Amino acid sequence: MFRKLKEKFLSLNLVVNYRKILPYVLPYKWRALTAVLITIPIGGMDAVIAWALKPYMDVVMVEKSTLGSTTFLIPLLIVVFSLLQSLLTYSATYLNTWVGQRIAMDVKKKLFGKLMRYNAAFFDKNTSGDIIFRFNNDVDAACSGLLNNMKLFTTRLFSSISLIGVLFYNSWQLAIVATLVLLGALFPLTRVRKRIKSLMDKSVFSGAAVMTHFNETYSGNRIIASYNLYDYQNARFCNTLDSVFKIGMKMIQRTGMLSPLMHFIVSFGVAAVIWLGSYLIVTHQITAGSFVSFIAALIMLYNPIKSIGNNFNSVQMALMAMERVFGALERTPDIINCENPKQLSTPKDCIEYKDVCFSYIKGKQVLDHINLKIKIGETIAFVGNSGGGKTTMVNLLPRFYDVTGGKLMIDGVDIRELDIDSLRDKIAIVFQDNFLFCGTIRDNIILGKEDATEDEIKNAVKCACLEEFISTLDKGLDTEIGERGVMLSGGQKQRIAIARAFIKNAPIVILDEATSALDNKSEAIVQQAIENLMADRTVFIIAHRLSTVRNADKIVVVNYGKIAEIGTHEELIDKPDGIYASLYRTQLR
Fold this sequence. Notes:
Elements: H1 2-11, H2 14-25, H3 29-62, H4 69-117, H5 120-125, H6 128-170, H7 172-186, H8 192-219, H9 221-226, H10 230-255, H11 258-282, H12 288-330, E1 350-358, E2 367-375, E3 379-383, H13 390-395, E4 405-410, E5 413-414, H14 420-425, E6 427-430, H15 441-445, H16 454-463, H17 467-471, H18 490-504, E7 508-512, H19 520-534, E8 538-542, E9 554-559, E10 562-567, H20 569-573, H21 579-588
Parallel strand pairs: 3-8, 3-9, 6-7, 7-8
Antiparallel strand pairs: 1-2, 1-4, 4-5, 9-10
Helix pairs in contact: 3-4, 3-6, 3-12, 4-6, 6-7, 6-8, 6-12, 7-11, 7-12, 8-10, 11-12, 16-18, 18-19
């Protein structure tokens, strides 16, 4: 049985996990050590109360003597030690909470830094609820559970050692019986983890799904209102809650008998001790005081054991959360720098797609042997059917994804050999739906260059055609725009994004359908801002509105992952059976 207990203990990865968390504990080692050391007297004082009953019972209850120091000192001693134990318990709880929250903060900071470095594919595969649960809730559960488990373990350890000492002090015969029953009561714990592991994984998934519903309701509140999706969304949420409930009930079914079973096993120990103790008293092998002291110590030892099943699930949750946290910490992003990466200076020659292939899902090719050369300073437009691979082609340039075949090169150097930060510093992107952060207009513009001067900001505002709009605001650039820029129109968001790109002053600009969601008036203003941004830069344009790409130096028609046509507007429009000419005529109609 000891071998099985050892195996189960090791299967919890306790030693491994605590070793991994050690670097985060070291900055607060003195507080953490103090919190652990305090638990030693907390646990040890349990034995004092049980031990004190022996002389008290022998003097007062057996000898019927109310005189002498024992009668007065032992009750006083119990009160004093209980007070001291209470104060130490408060101190340990405070220190554990302080250290646990500081560790959680440090782990969250590191996780957040890693989260920002994950590639786009990670966010494609994980919901917002999954990410919040794994990078926030799991940390809280792991770090709070870490020291709480440590406090519980050390308190129970020293309490058990001291109480077992009292047991053997009073009667070694009874102590052996009690210890054997104690090991028997602990045996069911070795079977629990395997029974609840799959349920805990499902519980985490369901918890993340609940968060996803809240996030979707927040972000999609207008869609819910405009399509009267209240019943639909509520039904989905209720189904998820029903799943959470069923998983919770299955957890109770598999673990609910743990505490009653342990209670039942412990009752055998108590019964055996009373039976054997009665015999030992009658045969004068122990005194009545020793027996009462023994029973008190036994009950104090058994009570935590009987109730341990009730919090064993939370302990398991904390341990599994810790495993998931370290799994995230140890995970390496798919897109990282190579060894000794090169710094990218301002591109001087060309950008080349050489036999480039790419697939999001293995076996489903999105780009099929693309070959394309763009001279620095050129404006190139990608057009074609939806899902044909236009956006994918430009997403490969800043390494949001890596090619699965071929090479993408800048000035003859594979971009995988370039330092990622230096590569992305040379690229500015204006998306169709630009994300604005909560804060002011100024805060969002200077994201492109945090140390931008007032003159640079004014020039960016002017070039992005924002001057007239800014002048109508009481606080100007310091106007709060709300989360995701909810206080602004689509055209205003686009121009702020263009101003951000101006501030960055990158030599390569990507315009991903930057005007497709705007009305004609807004499009005209934004188009002027875009033309200002395009001056003297290498520009990649993705567009559905072909009227916006007429002046491009080169238009590339991408269909079904292949380049179907390349040429200027005039060259492609002169091909009566060409794809571009057909698309252009359709849009004119």
